[in-house]
Amino acid sequence: MNKAILSAVLGAALLATGCSNLQSNTASIRDLNDPSVSGHVLAEQVCSMCHGVGGNSINPTFPRLAGQQPAYLTEQLKAFRSHDRSDVAGYQYMWGIARSLTDKQIDELAQYYKGQIPVPGQARNAGLVAQGKAIFLNGVEASGVPACASCHGPQGYGHDGFPRLASQHDNYILKQLSVFKHTNDRYTGLGTMMSPVAYNLSGDQAREVAAYLSSQP
């Protein structure tokens, strides 16, 4: 096995182990219970175990946070802390992580990730990307689906409380669309706007939008 492949395998194994440990042993992580630790330090020493260095996650289970809108991250971290956001991944991973975060640490985390440079996405299926782009920019009038760009911006970079979606993992986007469509687990804040949108998207349309967004810079 060459060194590059070995490094990748070991890195993936360490990432999986780290996230598993965070899930089961959050109480043993001293920094999470210390309000004097800065958000910058938490991001680099704790959050990076799942969300990757600089917020550029390589595991589609965990969203990429680099370049994310700070207002959105602040809202989500507070929703995890209060348990208002209760999707499966939320309570499995983020409830324990967020429970001891102070407002100051949350603000610092949001600003840290805002300042990180996102890794550009890659197109894997040109046909899906083209269809997804049309939906993202124009919506689906026949189904009552508005243009995603009307809230998330023409490039998918988001603004204010609307999240950046460009270069996000397609699997993660699909998972969240399913949560919005089939549950009330994210029915809080601006998330309430997504339920009817996701409900009116077909499975194929959701995959097309996810493919387009994951291909963006």
Give descriptors for this structure.
single chain, 217 residues, mainly alpha, Cytochrome Bc1 Complex, Chain D, domain 2, 2 domains, 10 helices, 0% strand, globular, Cytochrome_c_Oxidase_Subunit, periplasm, Cytochrome_c4-like, Cyt_c-like_dom_sf, Putative cytochrome c4
What does this structure look like?
There is one protein chain. The protein is globular and about 50 Å long. It has two domains: 3-114, Cytochrome Bc1 Complex, Chain D, domain 2 (Orthogonal Bundle); 126-214, Cytochrome c-like domain (Cytochrome Bc1 Complex, Chain D, domain 2, Orthogonal Bundle). It has helices at 3-24, 39-51, 70-82, 88-98, 103-114, 126-138, 149-152, 170-182, 194-200, 203-214. Helix 2 packs across helix 5 and helix 3 packs across helix 4 (88-98). The longest helix has 22 residues, at 3-24. The protein has 217 residues and is mostly helical.
Radius of gyration: 17 Å
Give the CATH architecture of the largest domain: Orthogonal Bundle
The helix/strand series, from N terminus to C terminus, equals HHHHHHHHHH
Structural domain count: 2
- β-strand number: 0
Poorly predicted runs of 5 or more residues: 1-17, 24-28
**Share of β-strand residues:** under 5%
What characteristic shape results from the CA principal axes? globular
Mean pLDDT: 90
What separation lies between the terminal Cα atoms? Answer: 32 Å
* CATH homologous superfamily annotation of the largest domain: Cytochrome c-like domain
Main sheet: strands, sense, barrel: none
Q: How does the helix and strand content classify structurally?
A: mainly alpha
Total of DSSP H or I helical runs spanning 4+ residues? 10
- Helix amount: 55-70%
Domain Cytochrome c: 33-117, 127-217
InterPro entries: Cyt_c-like_dom, Cyt_c-like_dom_sf, Cytochrome_c4-like, Cytochrome_c_Oxidase_Subunit
GO molecular function: electron transfer activity; heme binding; iron ion binding
Main location: periplasm
